[in-house]
TrEMBL record:
InterPro entries: GAF-like_dom_sf (IPR029016), HTH_MetabolicPath_Reg (IPR050707), Tscrpt_reg_IclR_C (IPR014757), Tscrpt_reg_IclR_N (IPR005471), WH-like_DNA-bd_sf (IPR036388), WH_DNA-bd_sf (IPR036390). This is IclR family transcriptional regulator. Coiled coil: none annotated. Residues 15-76 form the HTH iclR-type domain. Keywords: DNA-binding, Transcription, Transcription regulation. Residues 77-258 form the IclR-ED domain.
Amino acid sequence: MTAIETPERDADYRVPALQRGLTILGMFSARERILGMSDMAERLEISTSAVYRIVQTLVDMGYLQRVGRNAFELGTKVISDGFSYLASRDIVEVSMPHLNALRDRTSLSCHLSIREQTDSLYLYRAFAPQRLTVNIPIGTRLPCHSTAMGRMLLTGLDEAELGQLYQHVRLDDYPAPAPRTLPELQQLIAQDRERGWVLHRSDYSTAIATGIHDHQGQVVAAINLSGPDAVMDTSFAQESFLTTLLASRDSISRELGG
């Protein structure tokens, strides 16, 4: 006989410390930006010594920051993660119709990605229904330095920031044409930044990518056109596709305030 799940049974799987930590984060609002540890303990109906370890963990992780001896406010981790989520959601919603139209005009697949550390994270694809096409699923992560969109995402960093990001990353494990040293990567990204677009060939396919800019002029995402070499391997085709891609970039950037 199968056991029937009940609220009491579900409660057995709860993690009290995690539940209390999330409850603490939920206590902060526009009206209450700063809370004392005693306030948190009183609302949770636990002792201040019990709440201390939870608060300290949240401080260590960046979700809370101390503003007094026993006073706290939301930390930069909450704010940056929240804005990153909202920004990525806005980027997808704004870019979607433009990428769909770009696919329809070119009959090539189009993708949208953002940078997470050294990875290019694919957020959207406009799939071209051809027998020979490039189709990278949403959620895929690829190393930035070895892809066209990833390289465009790296152009949002200056040379020092790029060096700091890749100071502990081995590059010589990747096949050509990916750069194999940090100075080579820095030189390549400087050229990409000046050009404003990247053309990259791999596995019988070609991708052309460019960056999306926000209202501050920062590179916040990248888009591409990608297809088989048989379609894209002429200078006339590449120039035509690039012109269309850059027009879509400008339209998306304008809607994001760029």
